[in-house]
Write a structure and sequence with these properties.
By secondary structure, the protein is of the alpha/beta class. The protein is built from 14 helices and 10 strands.
């Protein structure tokens, strides 16, 4: 299979940009042998940009980087609910999108995307502290305050800073496949995948010890995907009732336990399709789906493609 073509990533630094929000896409997509991306950090103009939290930036590129990029990240910035970005920035974002670039906001960067009108009629999220302000300022945007990120195809938004990692890994999974995303997650010492539908925060004032216990149960399940896994077995491992396990699991992950198991099995199948030459029937057995027909059914339902097409797109050179 040919080496993937280089993808161009622009990170747009606005006045008051949050350091972590800027650093996440810059680090995740920085050019290396395993990552076919080139990153340019830019501003409204080349030169110094006053940042947030005591840091400032000296960017090498201006808005011409948005005309160059395939993906444009807009990190969060200070006081997004007070003023829109400069008109030249808004126009450059609109032009980049019209040219076919994907626009991805981290945290309050969603306000800059909303100023373009490109979020009108679409779902979007931002940091939970600002969701009401975004909804009030942009009533045509369908603001979802309870998710980590939203993928609307050519425009993507994420919640607070750490969810920017989840969004970047989500983009990697779509661009390069599960193996590359998992490799990046290991390098970042981050969770390989948290669903976009997971809650921004668990609605309890004091953390409960069940959190670590449930994480241990997920790890236990991931090592046994080829075996029968039932709700009762998962709840038994966590030492709680199935009802309690189901309720808490949805709060923690955004999926029911069995939805999560199915997606974990599909992800394992994706990595085997990318990295091995095993047949479809063998992979189906390895991941606990029994038959190739069953694997194809769930692959089509979850990913809207077939295992054969997926392998053709993402299989690594042997």
């Amino acid at each position: 299979m040919s080496v993937p073509s280089l993808r161009r990533v622009a990170v747009l630094v606005l006045e008051g940009a949050k350091p972590l929000d800027v650093g996440i896409p810059a680090q995740v997509f920085t050019t290396r042998a395993s990552m076919p991306y080139e990153v340019r950090v830019c501003g409204a103009a080349p030169g110094p940009v006053a940042g947030g939290d005591g840091l400032s930036y000296d960017v090498a590129h201006g808005l011409e980087a948005l005309a160059w990029a395939d993906i444009v990240f807009v990190p969060g910035y200070r006081h997004p609910d007070r003023d829109d970005p400069p008109r030249a920035v808004v126009d450059a974002l609109i032009s980049a999108h019209a040219r076919g670039a994907r626009l991805a906001a981290i945290s309050t960067g969603a306000f800059a995307l909303a100023a373009t009108g490109l979020l009108d009629g679409r779902r979007a999220t931002t940091h939970w502290h600002y969701t009401r302000a975004l909804a009030a300022q942009r009533p045509l945007v369908r603001v979802d305050a309870n998710v980590l990120f939203v993928d609307e195809g050519s425009v993507l938004t994420s919640a607070g800073a750490a969810s920017g990692i989840d969004l970047c890994l989500h983009i990697l999974r779509g661009d390069l496949g599960v193996a590359a995303s998992n490799h990046a997650a290991r390098r970042l010492v981050a969770a390989p995948y948290r669903s976009g539908g997971q809650a921004q925060y668990v609605p309890r004032s004091v953390p409960e010890p069940l959190g670590e216990r449930f994480a241990a149960t997920r790890e236990w399940a991931l090592r046994r995907l080829g075996e029968p896994l039932t709700l009762e077995a998962l709840a038994r491992h966590a030492a709680v009732s199935p009802r309690t396990f189901s309720r808490r699991f949805v709060e923690d992950t955004g999926y029911t336990p069995m939805q999560w198991v199915m997606r974990a099995r599909i992800d394992m199948a994706r990595e085997l399709l990318e990295r091995s030459q095993r047949g479809i029937e063998q992979i189906a057995a390895d991941v606990g789906l029994g038959t190739g027909a069953n694997l194809r059914l769930h692959f089509q339902r979850i990913l809207d493609t077939t295992p054969r097409e997926y392998r053709r797109t993402f299989a690594q050179d042997r």
